[in-house]
From TrEMBL:
It is found in: Membrane. It comes from Lactuca virosa. GO terms for cellular component: membrane. This is ATP synthase delta chain. It comes from the Eukaryota. The lineage of its organism: Eukaryota, Viridiplantae, Streptophyta, Embryophyta, Tracheophyta.
């Protein structure tokens, strides 16, 4: 059975202050990784295991999604209640960036790294001021409950909750090269007109296969698509002429 999500009181009141002890030399290398304006994390060299995650197949995935949603909702509720929703959303982006490093993720999910060593790194993050205290408390709770492996799913679920609370429409703009800010602003206005959302948040991605132009995905799970790419235009021309795919020079 999945552990219950943390209560708002637990996130607000639990302290992340632990005595510092030197980790064993075979688990952490002295080399450093940088994070969020000054925080230094040790390079992690622990071995990973191939143990399966809780549950299995479809059932296990559904349980994980449900747990991730519960944790994300709990964090969002704390942030909303103390007026730090925007700052917490920014912190969650930092957390996402941090755990995108496979060495960092492997360290925190590894069963051969002690709970205290994991806590010490969270304590370092707290001391550096890189993240708000309740966000650090949240990470610490995930570590204690062996749910830190859900962190990427939690980040995605938090974004969904945040967008609902702030009436924000997320649009993903994919182009061959990075678009100028004024162009992104125009796209945001167009998406806002289509969706009537109070706010529009733009995320960008690069895809050279588009040749030129761009695509916009928005709506529930980005299910709606506006395709303004040259690749799409070539595909439509090929379909009309019934000549198959038009080769695109690289």
């Amino acid at each position: 059975m999945a552990a219950a999500a943390p209560s708002t009181a637990a996130l607000q009141n639990s302290l992340v202050t632990f005595q510092s002890r030197s980790p064993s030399s075979n688990s952490i290398n002295p080399a450093n990784l940088s994070f969020s304006g000054g925080l230094r994390l040790p390079k992690l060299t622990t071995k990973t295991t191939n143990k399966s995650r809780r549950g299995g197949g479809y059932t296990g995935a559904k349980m994980a999604d449900s747990a991730a949603g519960s944790y994300a909702s709990a964090l969002a509720e704390v942030a909303r209640s103390n007026g730090t929703l925007e700052a917490t959303a920014a912190d969650v982006e930092k957390v996402d960036k941090l755990f995108s490093d496979k060495q960092v993720l492997n360290f925190f999910v590894s069963p051969i790294v002690s709970l205290e060593q994991k806590r010490e790194l969270i304590d370092d993050i707290t001391s550096s001021g890189s993240l708000q205290l309740h966000v650090c408390n949240f990470l610490n709770i995930l570590i204690e409950r062996n749910r830190i492996d859900l962190i990427k799913e939690i980040v995605k679920e938090f974004e969904i909750v945040y967008n609902k609370l702030t009436e924000t429409e997320l649009a993903i703009v994919t182009s061959v090269v990075q678009l100028e800010r004024q162009h992104l602003a125009q796209i945001a206005k167009q998406v806002q007109r289509l969706t009537r959302a109070r706010n529009v948040r733009i995320k960008t991605a690069i895809d050279e296969s588009l040749v030129a132009g761009f695509t916009i995905r928005y709506g529930n799970s980005q299910s709606k698509l506006i395709d303004m790419s040259v690749k799409k235009q070539l595909e439509e021309i090929a379909a009309q002429l019934e000549i198959g795919d038009i080769p695109i020079p690289v």
